[in-house]
Amino acid sequence: MLPISYYVGLSAILFSIGALGVLIRRNAIIIFMSIELMLNAANLAFVAFARAHEALSGQVFVFFVMTVAAAEVAVGLALIVTIFRNKQSIDVDQMSSLKG
Amino acid sequence: MSDVEILFLIIAVVTLLAALFVVTTPNLVHAALWLILTLFGVAATFVLLNATFLAVVQVVVYIGAIAVLMIFAIMLTRRVMKDSGPQTNANWGWAALLGLTLFAGLTFVLINSGAADASLPALAADVDPLVQLGQELVSPNAYVIPFELASVLLLAAMIGAIAVAWKE
Questions:
Q1: Contact: B69, A74; criterion CB under 8 Å
Q2: What ipTM, to 2 d.p.?
Q3: Are A2 and A65 in contact (CB under 8 A)?
Q4: CATH label, B1-81, candidates 1.10.1750.10, 3.40.190.10, 1.20.120.1200, 3.40.1280.10
Q5: Chunked in runs of 10, what are the mean pLDDT values of chain B (168 residues)?
Q6: B155 inside 8 A of chain A by CB
Q7: What pLDDT is attached to residue B83?
């Protein structure tokens, strides 16, 4: 079997790529995708450690993370569509006013 | 190298390249398709870690629901697909530096914690992880309350999404 460090290393690189995406992109939908990448990296680490310690709690947590991610994406994309309808743009640099 | 190692390396390289393309491609639809490939790679890694149920959930929920929802959002915000301006914000140099620092920090913590040194124990042949997971989720002294709360959360998110996107 592979050592767990392989999986954890993959998870760390994936998380960093996701964080990079959130930081450098202007498009709100791409930022959302990057957040999904980070959640997936965390899930990967959870499953790897659950496998290493033979504990199922890690897998249960991944299950809940996926539930919350689904909820987050539904609400977030609804917000993005509404913002686009109001401002004709989903550039995060232009979302600088609180009202209107 | 053993077969599993080669398989893992292929999956890891595909996953990371796809993730990199998600972050760097200027075309939104292409980014969504690369995201789907990344999610498939993570699902394959779940299979390697013997979490088959989560691999199936990953394909059904992430690829079947979340990625498709993303593509719908891209279609609904159609005009941005023609956006030809710079796709990165002005501070991308600092952001890249911060990303690298984050990676270095993560690696440092993981190496020093010693948690990553453990090699994987052999699988117990007589227990079915799916049965165990199901029992954990509905057992009163384990995770039944978070499980029910998650369903309420999904309902609230659904109503909230409709309320937010409703056009009067």
A1: yes
A2: 0.90
A3: no
A4: 1.20.120.1200
A5: 86 93 87 93 91 90 88 78 64 83 85 68 70 83 88 93 84
A6: no
A7: 59
Alpha-carbon span B120 to B163, nearest angstrom: 47
Q: Give the pLDDT confidence score for residue B116 in this predicted structure.
A: 59
* Per-residue pLDDT at A18: 92
Residue A51: closest CA among chain B residues belongs to which residue?
Answer: B49
Cβ distance A51 to B51 less than 8 Å, yes or no, reads: yes
Q: Are the C-beta atoms of residues B42 and A46 closer than 8 Å to each other?
A: no
Taking contacts as CB-CB distances below 8 angstroms, the residues of chain B near A72 are: 157
Asked if the C-beta of B96 comes within 8 angstroms of chain A's C-beta atoms, the answer is yes
Q: Are B120 and A1 in contact (CB under 8 A)?
A: yes
Q: Residue B104: count other Cβ atoms within 10 Å of its Cβ.
A: 12
H runs (alpha helix) in B25-91: 28-48, 52-57, 68-76
Residue B42 pLDDT: 93
Q: Where in chain A are the domains?
A: 27-90
DSSP notation for B86-149: -SB-TTHHHHHHHHHHHHHHHHHHHHHHSGGGPBPPPPPSS--HHHHHHHHHH-TTTTHHHHHH
| B154 contact A CB<8A | yes
What pLDDT, on a 0 to 100 scale, did the predictor assign at position B35? Answer: 93
Question: Is B18 at the interface with chain A, CB within 8 A?
Answer: no
Distance from C-alpha of A11 to C-alpha of B68, rounded to nearest angstrom: 24
Mean pLDDT by runs of 10 across the 100 residues of chain A is 83 91 86 92 91 84 91 90 81 71
H or E segment at A76?
helix A57-87
